[in-house]
Amino acid sequence: MKRFLDMFSKNTFNLSLQKTIPAAAAKANYATEASFETKPFRLHKLDDGPSTNVTLNREDALKYFTQLHGIRRMETSAGNLYKEKIIRGFCHLYSGQEAVAVGMKAALRPQDAVITAYRAHGWTYMMGVSMKGVLTELTGRESGCARGKGGSMHMYTENFYGGNGIVGAQVPLGTGVALAMKYQKIDGVCVSLYGDGAANQGQVFEAYNMAKLWNLPCIYVCENNGYGMGTSSERAAASTSYYSRGDYIPGIWVDGMDVLAVREATKFAVEHCTSGKGPIILEAATYRYSGHSMSDPGTSYRTRDEIQEVRQTRDPITSFKEKIVASNLVTPEELKKLETEIRVAVDEATKKAKTDKEVPMEELTGDIYATTYEPKIRNITPFNPLDHKRYGQAVNL
Ligand SMILES: Cc1ncc(C[n+]2csc(CCOP(=O)(O)OP(=O)(O)O)c2C)c(N)n1
Ligand SMILES: [Mg+2]
């Protein structure tokens, strides 16, 4: 798969925030580490699972909070840009599901790859694209990580195979990435994320079969947010125990609203895959706050009370915040300061997303191939083809 990276879109936001943290930490008497108990994991075809006792250090507490809150804020901005008609086309928000991306990324190594569906903004950010790179991509501008030519569902960066709009299609693609890793003796795993709706697709089971047959390093992650478009998983699936639906593939159910539980389950899954045992399935129980896409108000197939209740009782950011403050890893003032810094960063990225230029017309047929094997691209008729040129840098070749 060919992907193109705007070098200036690299995610430097986390780094700049982290620099400010140790100075603040030096002044106060914080706990350096704390332990928490996660909800029990449910296991399929496994004798032992991840530990329910997890430890968290202060540095990671601040990092995860920054990432969780950063994604939430960025998605709120994306929603507003869409309502202002500055983002056009598709836009599926990740709000509510942040702990899955943040928890998983915390356990992945640099050589591990990720592929997901169209709800891709948070993952793109976690895989290294800056907020500016994401938001300008959403508005189709040249600072976007695909130079504005991919948009919401088609963002990529190193080891991130994107955004995929065909429900379930990323699962066999991710299996192929894992096959390439095994073939090339790269000690990596490929995480393929899909929804509860996609979990009913035939191609998912075909991919499971090959992955187990060849013991590929695949972590299949079913992000069960309870709904596929306008249908609840209860109405659409004969079995909603997605972690057990790989039959001969081991699986783990994890509370996808708890960033630490997700991190622990992912660590376990990476170890499982890299020890040669082949694929594993994680079902992350989560929730999406917004409608399916922007045209869906999200309240015709579920009640406002249900959404409100999740916000109040299971929200991944509020619950994490409560944990890290109660255990004295951080202070509320410190989190306030981070929230302000994140707001400023998102505001700056949003401004850029509104004012940045679009790429010129002739670039629209550029960067289709990593190497220009086909110098001409077919136009709307075959008689006046357009030029193919390379503009950006190809990555993940
Ligand atoms: C092959 C295919 N069929 C149908 C669609 C239309 N469609 C887009 S998203 C979606 C629901 C998927 O739900 P789920 O997998 O639970 O993901 P979520 O939106 O909850 O993240 C459907 C049916 C599509 N994009 N591709
Ligand atoms: Mg779903």
Furnish the topology, listing elements before pairings.
Layout: E1 3-5, H1 13-27, E2 33-37, E3 42-44, E4 53-57, H2 58-83, H3 98-107, E5 113-115, H4 121-126, H5 131-138, H6 170-183, E6 190-195, H7 202-213, E7 218-224, E8 227-228, E9 231-232, H8 233-236, E10 251-255, H9 259-277, E11 280-285, H10 304-313, H11 316-326, H12 332-355, E12 376-377, E13 386-387, E14 393-395
Parallel strand pairs: 5-6, 6-7, 7-11, 10-11
Antiparallel strand pairs: 1-14, 2-4, 3-10, 8-9, 12-13
The chain binds thiamine diphosphate and magnesium ion.
The site of thiamine diphosphate has 15 residues, from strand 6 and strand 8.
Enzyme class: oxidoreductase
Domain Dehydrogenase E1 component: 70-359
InterPro entries: DH_E1, PDH_E1_Alpha_Subunit, Pyrv_DH_E1_asu_subgrp-y, THDP-binding
Could you list some keywords that capture this structure?
EC 1.2.4.1, binds magnesium ion, binds thiamine diphosphate, globular, Pyrv_DH_E1_asu_subgrp-y, 14% strand, six-stranded mixed sheet, 397 residues, Pyruvate dehydrogenase E1 component subunit alpha, two-stranded antiparallel sheet, Rossmann fold, disordered N terminus, alpha/beta, 12 helices
